[in-house]
Each structure stands twice: as C-alpha cells, then as structure tokens.
C-alpha cells in the first residue's frame, strides 16, 4: 500500500501578516514529500507516526459532519493494520510537515471530497481551506489551513486576504539567473504555537499593531506584487525593508545566532533574510541578487536553492 505523494510548501511572503489580512504567496516545494504507507517490518519512526495517526483519527471523528466527514471505518482499519505517514519533510521547519499529512488523509478518506480535477472556484478553495484549517488544528492549536491546501493542490496560492484566495502562476524561473531564493538551515526546530502566542501578545500593544499595519503588511504586499509581476529590482528594495522590519520587531522569532547574519545581509546587500513560517528555528528564507556572493557571505551554511531569478 502506498498513497500519492504530497509535497512540502514554502510561504514566500505573508508569515504572521496573513493573520491580519496581508497578502501572501505560498508555493509547493517538491524537494520534500510524504505519502501514506504500510510496511511489514515498521521502523521506530513508522510506529511513532502510526501512534500519532491513532490520536488524529480520534480527533477527526469529532469534527462537524456538516463541514467534513470521513470513512472512519476504513481509516481506523488501516491504522490498526500499521499505516503511517512516510515523510522526508522535516518537522518544525516551517515548510508544512503536518500540512502534507492532512492533505494525504483528506485525499484518501474524506467523503464527498472536493477534488483537484474539478473547476476550483473561490468558494471551493475557501471551503477546502476551512476544512484543512479544522483538521490541522489538531497539530497547531489553530491553523489557517493554507499549508494543507498548498500540499493538496500542488499549485502556488495567492492569498489576497483571509477570505479571498486563488491559485496563481508565478514567473517561470530563469535557470541561468544570478539571483535566487534559498533556504538556510538554522539547525534547530521551531514550535509554531509559542511563536504565534508571542505575536498575539505583541498585537495587544498599539505601537506594534500600527507597525504591523503600516510597515510589515505594506512591505509584504509590495513583495507579493513585485514577485508575481517579475519586478526584480523593486522586489529587492521591498525585501530589504521587510527584512529590516522583521529584524527590528520580530527578534524573538529569529534564532539568536542568526541576528548578526541577518543584520550583515541588510548592511552589505549581499542577501536579505526573512522568516520561513513562524520562525523560532527551522528554515530561514533568503533572497539574493547574486547567489555566489551570498554563498561566500554565508559560507558556514548549506544553502538550498528554491527558485532562480
């Protein structure tokens, strides 16, 4: 038994902002993936995943049937027979490990499911996002449903606001280009819930709320527009501003050992760093107009290129 593959995702723009209705842009990242499986001789990891699926199935049983219902009998039988989620997506890295699992379970066990093949109207996308949000809340306490949506559709998703999302296309990559989007491994995992908690606490201060609205969201929206329209020059101007705002106001979300590197990027313009997901660990996203320069400046780290300009 082996299910279809579901990929990781990268939220290029919109972390935290989309909670407050900024634009966002999420793209599938096919380097990491996962699938539902069964093995005759399960590994320790497979056994752990199977245990986690048991708890997840119990949670799914109690979801509002009007929203979504599952073929629980088959799901529980498969879990009892040792099914697990075989995934190369690192957990706690901000690239959607639980999202891929949610997409895989919905794909196989949901009754009356909305399929990728039908005409995906905005209403259907929002309905899927709502279902996935409820399903993924089991892992994060509160979920927007975007990660599973991205994984399920395997398409870039443009978030215009919380209740206005659409699948989109992004400019094709320039494989000979010098510029790149890359991932930087912080070497530590991050927990989503505590980071979101810090953000929500900060949002109680008027000064922070104003900064989010007038700086953070403004630059995020501009980056999304620039990226989709291929305005690379303008994009890097806005990225520098965004990187600066995050450095000044989202320090707890940036692992301490990266504070210096973050600042160095802004000062030298060799690269700009931003959060990938909720931060606190996992991957950090980097953007550079000259990959060779960025590699030299970050020579102690392994850069994984996601997209070429």
From TrEMBL:
Pfam families: GHMP_kinases_N
Keyword annotations of the record: ATP-binding, Kinase, Nucleotide-binding, Transferase
Superkingdom field: Bacteria
InterPro entries, per the entry: GHMP_kinase_C_sf, GHMP_kinase_N_dom, Ribosomal_Su5_D2-typ_SF, Ribsml_uS5_D2-typ_fold_subgr
Any one GO molecular function term: kinase activity
Domain spans labelled GHMP kinase N-terminal: 83-147
SUPFAM superfamilies according to UniProt: GHMP Kinase, C-terminal domain (SSF55060), Ribosomal protein S5 domain 2-like (SSF54211)
Keyword DNA repair on entry: no
Source lineage: Bacteria, Pseudomonadati, Bacteroidota, Flavobacteriia, Flavobacteriales
Protein name as it appears in the record: Mevalonate kinase
Keyword Transferase assigned: yes
């Amino acid at each position: 038994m082996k299910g279809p593959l579901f990929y990781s995702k990268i939220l290029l723009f919109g972390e935290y902002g989309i909670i407050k209705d900024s634009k966002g842009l999420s793209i599938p990242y096919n380097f990491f993936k996962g699938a539902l499986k069964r093995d005759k001789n399960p590994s320790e990891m497979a056994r752990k995943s199977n245990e986690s699926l048991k708890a997840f199935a119990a949670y799914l049983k109690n979801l509002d049937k009007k929203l979504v219902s599952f073929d629980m009998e088959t799901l529980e039988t498969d879990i009892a027979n040792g099914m697990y989620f075989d995934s190369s997506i690192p957990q706690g890295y901000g690239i959607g490990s639980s999202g891929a699992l949610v997409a895989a379970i919905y794909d196989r066990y949901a009754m009356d499911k909305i399929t990728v093949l039908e005409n995906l109207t905005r209403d259907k996308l929002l309905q899927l996002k709502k279902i996935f949000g409820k399903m993924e809340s089991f892992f994060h306490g509160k979920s927007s449903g975007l990660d599973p949506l991205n994984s399920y559709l395997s398409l870039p998703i443009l978030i215009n606001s919380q209740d206005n999302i659409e699948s989109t296309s992004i400019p094709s990559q320039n494989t000979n280009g010098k510029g790149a989007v890359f991932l930087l491994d912080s070497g530590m995992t991050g927990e989503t819930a505590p980071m979101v908690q810090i953000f929500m606490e900060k949002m109680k201060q008027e000064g922070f709320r104003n900064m989010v609205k007038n700086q953070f969201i403004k630059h995020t929206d501009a980056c999304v527009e620039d990226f989709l329209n291929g305005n690379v020059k303008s994009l890097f101007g806005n990225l520098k501003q965004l990187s600066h705002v995050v450095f000044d106001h989202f320090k707890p979300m940036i692992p301490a050992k990266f504070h210096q590197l973050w600042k160095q990027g802004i000062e030298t313009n060799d690269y700009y760093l931003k959060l990938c997901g909720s931060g606190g660990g996992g991957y950090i996203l980097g953007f550079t107009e000259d990959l060779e320069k960025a590699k030299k400046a970050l020579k102690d780290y392994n850069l994984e290129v996601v997209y070429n300009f």
